[in-house]
Amino acid sequence: MAPSMTVLFVTKLVLILQSMIREKLLAFAANSLAFVHYKLHGFATLNVSTVISGCIGPLDAEDKEDQDRITTERNTALVVTAGPSLHYPNPPNPDKVLYINKKEAPLLKVERGVPVTFSVEAGHDAPLYITSDPVGGNATSRNVSEIIYAGGPKAEGVPATPTELIWLPDRNTPDLVYYQSLYDPKMGWKIQVVDGGLSDMYNNSVLLDDQQVTFFWTLSGDSINIAARGERKSGYLAVGFGSAMVNSYAYVGWIDGDGTGHVNSYWIDGKDGMSVHETRENLTHTRCRSENGAIVFEFTRPLAPSCSGRVECKNIVDPKTPLKVIWAMGSQWQSGRLSVKNMHSVTSNRPVRILLLAGLAEAEQDLRPVLAVHGFMMFVTSGLLLPGGIMAARYLKHLKGDVWFQAHTYLQYSGMAVMFLGVLFAVAELRGFSFKSTHAKIGTLAFGFAFLQPINAYLRPHLAENGEILSRNRVIWEYLHIFTGRSALVFGVIALFTGLQHLGHRYGSKNTKGLTCGLILWVVSVALVVLYLEYMAVKRRRDGGADGHSGKWVLGNNEEEDSVDLLQSERSSKMESNSTEPMEVQLEPLKG
Ligand SMILES: *[C@@H]1O[C@H](CO)[C@@H](O)[C@H](O)[C@H]1NC(C)=O
Ligand SMILES: *[C@@H]1O[C@H](CO)[C@@H](O)[C@H](O)[C@H]1NC(C)=O
Ligand SMILES: *[C@@H]1O[C@H](CO)[C@@H](O)[C@H](O)[C@H]1NC(C)=O
Ligand SMILES: *[C@@H]1O[C@H](CO)[C@@H](O)[C@H](O)[C@H]1NC(C)=O
Ligand SMILES: *[C@@H]1O[C@H](CO)[C@@H](O)[C@H](O)[C@H]1NC(C)=O
């Protein structure tokens, strides 16, 4: 008794275990398929659907249930011919009707986002077109309006020379349209349009922060089609345009108690329910559904609202500038009065900047520190070291020894080193170099001029022995040296401003306004200092010229290996016609 009971029990247990394992395996297989589908998008869809229809087996031509239905497949052309009407589904009917893949006026089923190819060979008198009109045969000629989605008078052919017609049902194609002949009514039949995968229906998609929401979009003319799919269960899904939920334009998709999906737009200017204001944006083609508890919603909106004054009118999407997108999910939403219950339970930590035209996204914060370092280094270079070096060369010459020369070279070389590092930082951060932006162009000019200088300095022609005759080459060289150096500085400073402008485009102009003002102040103060120094120098030369002592420092410099000061005197005489006279007067006796 007892052993047989045990055997029975064990057998049962094994059976249960077996069925559990089978279930798990099946679930696993289904999951993997779904995963493959998700990863490979459209291509896998075909594979999956092939597998499924393979289970049903090849369709029997005699099977009336299936004969008048055709589900289109990607990359497989539907052959459109004409033939006698035997059991046309929509009598009264003409003698000749359209056949697709040898089936008489079947019901076509197509997926949005998946192109349908027709090989039209129904004769020259039966061009194919896809229309919103159930009767066809050119509704316009019957004083009925119709929308034509594809085809027309040219979409006609015969079996020897078929014409290919490709039609792409998009997300705005209605659920039911018709294929018909353009010349005769009631030759074709219905096309059922179903939603394809979002990745088929939209050209671009990116994952938002935390990878919990996928954002899809297609730009079409002056409007944009947008879809958002939650990757986890929730009662509502919201995506917002802005850096944070506060001060953002939010689009919320939710399913109400009756199971109806809604999409609505809001302007949020605070943290509580009272600060969520419904807006009257012109959203069209809105849909919201729940896929296994995860919300998917779609809408189409104009890029720029055609109104003014109200807050939603400022909600402009400019494809050329990055769009900052955030998200939130919660358990419950309702239109009208919102309450604490509408609080989100999960939300993105940071906005993702979406480049709508490029179809790319980048997380915002990652970019900042490195670019800030780049900016700071460039400021140190163009705002401090390079002007410092130039000023040293210009205003420190009256000091004894080669102080000015040392200061000049040290400042310029360190400026170049910092500049080089700064460029490396930017290039590394942006993963490459592009000349597209003004900032990059001007920065490159500054960089180029700056790095001409050491080469230039190395090649400088030496002065004639006693400095009496400045060689022609030397004069040219001096001009070149001054010109390149100052160009590098000017372009460097312009690059600072364009860089700030660039930063403003990326992160909003709020943050960069202060920096720009600061930079302007800095440039102005440096200019004032230069003016003052210039004034002092002129004054010194005048005084020097008057009492005849200033010759000393010229002489002192003259003993240097390179007699750089002579070039300075020559340079100043050329540069400032005002101060020319006293300078030359004092130089001559000394050299003699
Ligand atoms: C399924 O996918 C594989 C690999 O992507 C491909 O080689 C194969 O042709 C596909 N099957 C069908 C029926 O298209
Ligand atoms: C339909 O007929 C009207 C004239 O009745 C013509 O102007 C129009 O081009 C036709 N439509 C097409 C798609 O051929
Ligand atoms: C179409 O409508 C116009 C006026 O709107 C009328 O003159 C014409 O006779 C109508 N044609 C048919 C075929 O009904
Ligand atoms: C989006 O896809 C459609 C159809 O494939 C294409 O016509 C359109 O040019 C694409 N738009 C962009 C911006 O890539
Ligand atoms: C929506 O469109 C209507 C008319 O087409 C316009 O009056 C209204 O201002 C638009 N609203 C927005 C937010 O663009």
Give a structural overview:
- With about 600 residues, the chain is an alpha+beta fold.
- The chain has helices spanning about 1-40, 40-55, 65, 200, 370-395, 405-430, 440-460, 470-505, 510-545, 550-560, 565-575, 580-590, and strands at about 70, 80-85, 95-100, 105, 105-110, 115-120, 130, 150, 165, 175-180, 190-195, 205, 215-220, 225-230, 235-240, 250-255, 260-270, 275-280, 285-290, 295-300, 325-330, 345, 350-355, 360-365.
- The chain folds into three domains: about 65-195, Immunoglobulin-like (Sandwich), CATH 2.60.40; about 200-365, Immunoglobulin-like (Sandwich), CATH 2.60.40; about 370-545, Four Helix Bundle (Hemerythrin (Met), subunit A), CATH 1.20.120.1770.
- Helix content is about 40%, strand content about 20%.
- Strands 15, 16, 17, 18, 21, 22, 23 and 24 form an eight-stranded antiparallel β-sheet that branches. Strands 1-5-11-10-7-8 form a six-stranded mixed β-sheet.
- The longest helix is centred in the N-terminal third of the chain and has 39 residues, at about 1-40.
- The termini are far apart.
- Bound molecules: 2-acetamido-2-deoxy-beta-D-glucopyranose (5 copies).
- One 2-acetamido-2-deoxy-beta-D-glucopyranose binds near residues 140, 141, 148, 153 and 182.
